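Problem 12. The chain below contains 263 residues. Write out its predicted structure in token notation.
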Amino acid sequence: MHILVTNDDGVHAPGLLALAQAVRKIADKVTILAPDHNWSASGHVKTLHRPLRVNETELADGTFAWACDGAPSDCVALAQLGFIPEEIDLVVSGINPNANIGHDVTYSGTVTAAMEAAIWGIPGVAVSLDRPEDFSGAVDYQHAAEAARRIIHWLWEQESMPKDAILNINIPYGPLYEMKGFRLTRQGLRIYRDELVRRLDPRGKPYYWIGGDAPIGVEEPGTDYGSLSAGYISITPIQLDLTCQSMMAWMQDLGFEGDLQVS
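Solution.
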């Protein structure tokens, strides 16, 4: 198995190193191609207006890696388009230091790297750590990396993981023995508490920050947020088909299909 490891925090982020070290135990080959700087909350980006540059780099443990000045999704696209000559079997993105749950998946560069993999017909896995908001100091990614390794290993052994889907994995912060287990979940409701902060620069011209308190969520059973809050590892299968089936059914019931009569 050949695994491509990427992230949105930058190639030298400690979460990526921990993840790469973990998946080496189950892969025949691990290639690292990640952004050369932080792309958090970048969403699903495709860089078309400028050239992309890729440089060699070395991680903290001496591991060779590629650093790209594009987005996480660019890294996956470059690899699949031929920058990495060997066929890629699986894309694993992370480990993000904060959870990616609910509507976060549309903002997250971690998740959208896995989405890019699905576009190319490669299974994609996004891994995020639910670091407490008041946490300070160095983040320990080792337990999350081991949990991710176990999940990925089990999935790969089934030999039939869908290639058009993404797994969004969110892991509680702390040692493995404190985690209650794995839960298959659906996307929950994320509640954002953004505020617009208006300030003036030294020349008296206004500029703006999107600030506010950290987002929260609804602790509903069966959801990513609810399961994570209860101490479980949340595993949410995501698909690229965003069709709203309920609205489609509603419009069909209203007789929307057919010739459009304009008055």
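Discussion. The radius of gyration is 20 Å. Students who got a different answer should revisit the alignment rule from Section 12.3.
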